[in-house]
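Notes on consecutive records. When two proteins share a document, each keeps its own sequence and its own token line. Never mix them. Below: protein one.
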Amino acid sequence: MAPGSAGRRQATEAGTFDPATGEPTAAGADQYSVHPGARPLIVKHHGAKPTKVVYADPRGTQTVPTTPDEQGSLVLADDDLQELAWWSVAADKHFRRPMTLEWAKDGRTGELFVTATSW
């Protein structure tokens, strides 16, 4: 399960835990899961995303409302999810255990980055 939210990472980290699964959830964030196979199944749950955290001048961040377009769209495309799923499988194989990936998507270029891994 991967949460996705507009803006900086703090918007996603402000979530809670799903009592049914014990998995972390992000308040208002989109939720995604990818089930591998010959025809991968991608499950998407649209979140409300009422706010986002953005850079503020001269340093720091601030929380601002998301636009109606940001609220109405998903943060990740299918290609993004497949790339993150591939990275997740690669990390699991490399470390020989299930890993959690922290990731970021550049708001200007759309490029994905793995920012941290942990178990």
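Protein two starts on the next line and is unrelated to protein one.
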Amino acid sequence: MLTYQDDDFEDLLGDEETDDPPSEAIPGLATESEMAQLLGITANRVRTLARDGMLHRPVRGRYDVRASLKTYIGDLRDKASRLGYAGGKQSSNSQLSAEKLRLTKAQVDEREIKNAAARGELIPAQKVRTAWTSYTIALRQAVLAAAPRVATQAGLDRAAAATLDAELRLALEQIADKRTVNDG
């Protein structure tokens, strides 16, 4: 049966104090099944860790518990550190890594935009505004010029021509008002 002693884990786990210290001492050697029970893993995993040098087996079928725990816990700490966790919290190294990643993504996005612009896939907003303004002015002039032509070709009197002109101007104003409301 495995036993634990408070002093044995203090060096391995750090300075954290426990409220209920284990009442059993840690044995010097343990069997494969005892190591599995102690570490909370399967016997097969114990064999794999021993083969990988993580668990120390000085005698066939027996494991050096203290050395194995020290190596195993150290490895778990290293893995947690690489993942950016220290003491169950994300470390400042991880936060720094996250910031570096965010910066790198922003730089990549900026480069992709510049490349797309160089390929002619993007048009500067000012050029688009200028072009649409020109097209809008030309369209307005064409619509307003149509009223007198239609009135002449259709043989409309002055009152009907004025009504046609007023309706076209009203329609253009309503379109302009909707554009201003939607844009603003």
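For the record: The chain is about 70% helix and 5% strand.
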